[in-house]
Amino acid sequence: MNIVVCIKQVPDEPTIRIDRQRMTIIREGVKSIINPLDYVALEASLALRSRQGGEVTVLTMGPPQSEEALREAMAIGADRAILLTHPAFAGADTLATSHVLASAISKLEPFPDLVLCGMQTIDSDTGHVGPQIAEELGIPQVCGVNEIILEEDFLMVKRLSDGFLETLHVDLPALLAVTHELSSVRHLPFGALEVAFSEREVTQWGLEDLNLREEEVGFRGSATQVWKLQSPPPRREGDLVTGSPQTLVDHLIRKLEALSILDEEDGHE
Amino acid sequence: MGTNNALNGVWVFGDYRNYFQNRVTLQLIAKGKELAEKRNTKVTALLLGEQVQQYAMEYVAHGADVVIAAEHPDLKEYQVEAYCALVAQWVEAFQPEVFLAGATSFGREFFPRLAKRLGTGLSADCVALEVDPKTGLLLQTTPAFGGELLAEVVTPNHRPQMATVHPGVFQERPHNPEAVGRILYPDFNVLPQSRVRLIRSRRQQIRKVNLEEAPVVIVGGRGLGSKAQFERLFELAQLLEGEVGATRPVIRAGWAEEDRLLGQTGKSVKPKLLISIGTSGALQYTTGIQGAEIIIAINRDPHAPIFRMADLGLAGDASAILPLLLEALRKRI
Questions:
Q1: Could you give the ipTM of this predicted complex?
Q2: Which end of chain A is more exposed for a tag (fewer CB within 10 A), N or C?
Q3: Is residue B43 included in any domain, yes or no?
């Protein structure tokens, strides 16, 4: 079974800081990680490979430094890695992003039996790219998958969808967007990271390799545009109390009394 | 259905699977009507299913000018590919300006694929929708950069302008039995989805967690530092007769189950009192709590964004405050 896993390098949440004057993200000091759900997708692909054989290919679109994420994925166990990078790919919305990823997957020979991705990324959280890749490839999709059972030549998958626990029969090839219940992430084998960084190859494809034109990718190929960024408006701005923990607790208790959540205590205040 | 100018306005996808728990379609019909009035057009709700007349009537009573009700036994279950094929045909035939859907599990799976098929843009989890007075474009406000900022997104050259909206962001209109609207039953052929087949479906067992109806909600964030600290919130919730909610980083850390998640990809709550502890106040979380009557926030960073939406802010260390608070409450209750 040949599997493609789509991954994305994202900024690690706690390190994100915003320049509120310029309304941009401060790049310095931001640590990059593989999107957490993409690890889950990768792990699922390795489990399927161990039963069925075949190859696991990791794929990402991003700036050249995204290569680090691919090398980490190879250290975890992926057989090969493809980096889709070109200046024209920048500024893409999900429509343009899925176009580049789907173009790369179509180029693979043989066509993969399964495409896996994380259900959403922690930086943009849209969850759009998976279904949009499936649409462009003309293959079925299931989102929110938390269990994959491999049958003869199809999959049974389970998921929770709007309060229903569903079991679905999925014909291959297909795309599955997975959630974090699926599996736990293994620890890196000792020394694997070093090998992945020094000895392994990352294939790099740009605009021409994918036979794409500038106007169909990146900012130009996007249907949506960001007009402006703004800070969320303050909604309430109540009092901010500082002091010792006991002072703070006393304030809180008084507030609970004022809200009639606690009965007023005789002699209190 | 014939030509009808009313049908090229604002469309809302009718997501009725959990009609009684999830009123997002009604909320979008209300918002869609407001947008449609500004654009001098109508709001149309689109329904697909086996027997959907009762929902069509509800949608009219809640403000829909037109309902397209596509009934067919093969549409009994929600199916992404069959729905895409049918809905794309109707969108191409009637050319709506705007198309909205709730950010339910199904909405989040169906709308991206539909947008791709139509070759148009889609914004996720909007927290506000307005019409730009100059251009008439739909201004789609959506959280960006992990919720630290709001992005105003437009779809200038592609139609329809598509967006998903989380339940609870907008208010539904009251049920008006006198409301007048048209219900259209189109003729169509359906190709049942064969590549993904539903084998079994059962409702998740009655949940113990009923955040949406709890009068008091205690929310813990990653600032609590550990699962052990987070678990102290259960005692606090018990003393105040409330429920415990969590932010995404807490779920990710495995301190709580997904059914406690609040915010953009979780639940929206409107309790009388919400106490938010160790949460920085990322928009992806605060989207889910803006309906709370009173918000009290505890965070050690006095500049944390959560304080900008709190009625009372306590700048202090939760691990020092919690034991004292629990002790004070145990004496009182």
A1: 0.88
A2: C
A3: yes
Pairing of strands B128-131, B138-144: antiparallel
Pairwise CB contact (< 8 Å): B200 & A167: yes
Pick the CATH number of A3-216 from 1.25.40.10, 3.40.50.720, 3.40.50.150, 3.40.50.620: 3.40.50.620
Contact between chains at B84 and A229 (C-beta distance less than 8 A): no
B168 and B250 housed in the same domain:
no
- B20-66, pLDDT tens digit by residue? 767 899 999 999 999 999 999 999 999 999 999 999 999 999 999 99
DSSP helix/strand/coil, A238: coil
Task: Residue B80: name the closest of B191, B181, B165 by CA.
Answer: B191
Rounded to two decimals, what is the model's pTM? 0.84
Nearest to B11 by CA among B95, B84, B71: B95
Contacts of B256 in chain A (CB under 8 A): none
In a domain, B219, yes or no: yes
Parallel, antiparallel or unpaired: strands B149-154 and A225-230? antiparallel
Based on the structure, what is the number of domains in chain B?
A: 2
Size of interface A-B (CB pairs under 8 A): 251
Let me know whether B39 and B132 are in one domain: yes
Structure token pair of residue B284: 């992806």
User: Contact A238/B310, CB-based, under 8 Å?
Assistant: yes
Q: How far apart are CA B105 and CA B109, in angstroms?
A: 6
The Cα B255–Cα B249 span in angstroms is 9
Report the Cα–Cα distance between both ends of chain A, in Å, rounded.
72
Which string of b and e fits A144-171 if b means at least 16 CB within 10 Å? bbbebeeeeeebebbbbbbebebbbbbe
Rounded mean pLDDT, B203-220: 82
Residue B232 sits in a domain whose CATH number is: 3.40.50.1220
Residue (of A180, A181, A178, A155) closest to A168 by Cα position? A155
How do the domains of chain A map onto residue ranges?
3-216, 239-269
Alpha helices in chain B (DSSP H): 24-38, 53-61, 80-94, 105-118, 227-239, 248-253, 283-286, 318-332
Residues 6+ apart with CB under 8 A from A13: A122, B146, B249
Domain contains B98: yes
Q: How far apart are CA A170 and CA B121, in angstroms?
A: 28
How would you class B275 by CB atoms within 10 Å of its CB: exposed for 0-12, middle for 13-18, buried for 19 or more?
A: buried
Cβ within 8 Å, pair B204-A160: yes
Cβ B54 vs Cβ B77: under 8 Å? no
Query: Does B104 reach chain A within 8 Å, measured CB to CB?
Result: yes
